[in-house]
């Protein structure tokens, strides 16, 4: 559903993911996930929003499990917020402590 939605809905979805599981990462912002599918899909959302980002993956030594990460520059957060047309979601993102 999200993949076939307009840019505002994609930005809103990404903001929701950031609020619940994102934060500061690699001198910018981003998130980590254990889901390769979510990683690929979120990367696609960022590409649709024309947000330059970096992808990385690593294996947790203790659990031998792969994890995946996305990161982007701090200034791109404002671009994502501007694409989102829902005022309530924009306010939530701006109040989120992980991104101040």
Structure write-up:
- The chain is of the alpha+beta class and 100 residues long.
- It has helices at 7-21, 36-48, 75-83, 87-95, and strands spanning 22-25, 28-33, 54-60, 65-72.
- Helix 1 crosses helix 2 (36-48) and helix 1 (7-21) runs parallel beside helix 4 (87-95).
- The longest helix is centred in the N-terminal third of the chain and has 15 residues, at 7-21.
- 21% of the residues are buried.
Report the radius of gyration as a whole number of Å.
13 Å
Please tell me the overall pLDDT: 94
* Uncertain ranges: none
Distance between the termini: 30 Å
Helix/strand order: HEEHEEHH
- Estimated helix fraction: 40-55%
The largest beta-sheet arranges its strands as 1-2-4-3
Any idea what the shape is? globular
Q: Which structural class matches the secondary elements?
A: alpha+beta
Instruction: Characterize the quaternary organization of these chains.
Output: single chain
Strand content: 25-35%
Number of E-type strands: 4
Main pleated sheet: 4 strands, antiparallel
How many helical elements?
4
Give a nutshell description of this structure:
The chain has 100 residues and is α+β, with helices and mostly antiparallel strands. It has helices at 7-21, 36-48, 75-83, 87-95; strands at residues 22-25, 28-33, 54-60, 65-72. The radius of gyration is 13 Å and the shape is globular.
């Amino acid at each position: 559903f999200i993949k076939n939605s307009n840019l505002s809905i994609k930005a809103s979805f990404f903001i929701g993911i950031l609020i619940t599981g994102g934060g500061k990462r690699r001198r910018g912002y981003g998130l980590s996930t254990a889901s390769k599918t979510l990683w690929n899909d979120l990367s696609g959302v960022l590409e649709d929003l024309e947000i330059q980002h970096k992808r990385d993956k690593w294996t947790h030594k203790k659990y031998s499990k792969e994890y995946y990460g996305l990161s982007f520059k701090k200034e791109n957060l404002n671009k994502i917020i501007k694409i989102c047309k829902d005022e309530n979601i924009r306010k939530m993102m701006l109040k989120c402590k992980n991104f101040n």
